[in-house]
Design goal:
2 helices, twelve-stranded mixed sheet, 20-stranded parallel sheet, globular, mainly beta
């Protein structure tokens, strides 16, 4: 297949889309609605408005596809799941994209996304287009929202200009063995200080509970972001809950702002993590209170009591050259 228009399917019981090249379309490259038992394999997408979009349906696999946008424009998500169940995104590549790399979302508690797997994907240089839009924007390398019982493992997100990995209003998800490397280039030193490697949040309103609970974040490596791990409730909402989440066995080093930033209750677990700063500057934040030592953070929060401050001795972490990254992916 080689086209400059969208491939669209709806209400299909079994399908395969394979070995295609889709370029310069002002639509999604591939759109699949309310279908099941599908395979989307080896589609190269260049300068499409968006990439692969799955809405509704179940039991489909999206594997070994690539998305690039050399104009670094538009928005939306390169790979997206909306309100579907049992969808797998694996071994895909996204680069140079003004939007989300991967998005899994439901619609509040009405239509939840469930059992989504995002595994072994590579995301390079996505997020806001201008420095003025940096910080914790509404864009992420991987964004998990209104999604339950998902698995997000083995992904690499490098030089992202938005949040690297974000989860909100979701429960019972496992996030493990991901590599999250921040925007570390000197020319972005100031504007990238607020970007988080990992962000967990919840909001709500008077009639709907938003929550992030019962999620596990473990064995991840976080390097060079503004905040290592940031946790918030979004505004003064009724029913905003961030509880019973577990953050263990992670490596967080050389952040620019805060290693951990908290605006949540104490009903979460942080432990057995490794923190390290090459310059010896350890900054944490607890509900607007600045903390400038690891020991003070432990004493004030009761978190990370079995965690350590030690050099992880990792090698070759500063892989920022695009050619080198894709040659060794």
């Amino acid at each position: 297949i080689e086209v400059n228009r969208m491939i669209a399917l709806g209400n299909v019981d079994s399908f395969i889309i394979r070995n295609g090249y889709i370029a310069n379309t002002l639509e999604r490259a591939v759109y699949v609605a309310n279908s099941r038992n599908g395979l989307i394999d080896n589609i190269e997408m260049v300068n499409a408005l968006r990439g692969i979009d799955i809405t509704g349906g179940s039991e489909s696999i999206v594997v070994q596809n690539s998305y690039a946008h050399d104009m670094f424009s538009s928005g939306g998500s390169a790979f997206a799941n909306h309100e579907a169940k049992h969808i797998t995104f694996q071994n895909n590549v996204v680069k140079n994209w003004y939007g989300n790399g991967f998005l899994s979302e439901g619609y509040w508690d009405i239509y939840r996304a469930e059992n989504i797997t995002i595994r072994n994907n590579y995301v390079y240089h996505v997020g806001p287009q201008s420095d003025g839009d940096l910080a914790d924007s509404w864009m992420a390398g991987i964004w998990i929202s209104d999604t339950d019982d998902g698995t997000f493992i083995g992904n690499t997100i490098i030089q992202n200009r938005g949040i690297n990995l974000r989860i909100d209003s979701s429960k019972n998800n496992v996030i493990e063995n991901n590599i999250l490397i921040g925007q570390h280039a000197p020319e972005h030193e100031q504007t990238s200080r607020d970007i988080s490697c990992f962000y967990m949040g919840a909001g709500g309103n008077t009639s709907t509970e938003y929550y992030a609970k019962d999620n596990t974040f473990s064995h991840n490596t976080l390097y060079g972001c503004g905040n290592g791990m940031k946790f918030v409730t979004l505004g003064d909402y009724v029913g905003a809950i961030v509880e019973n989440n577990t953050m263990v066995n992670n490596i967080i080093f050389d952040t620019k702002e805060h290693y951990v930033s908290l605006n949540i209750s104490r009903l979460n677990i942080f432990n057995n993590n490794l923190y390290y700063d090459s310059d010896g500057n350890y900054s944490f934040k607890d509900n607007s209170i600045e903390i400038n030592s690891f020991e003070e953070y432990q004493n004030q929060t009761g978190y990370d009591l079995l965690s350590v401050v030690v050099d992880p001795l990792l090698q070759n972490v500063e892989i920022y050259d695009e050619v080198e990254f894709f040659a060794n992916r």
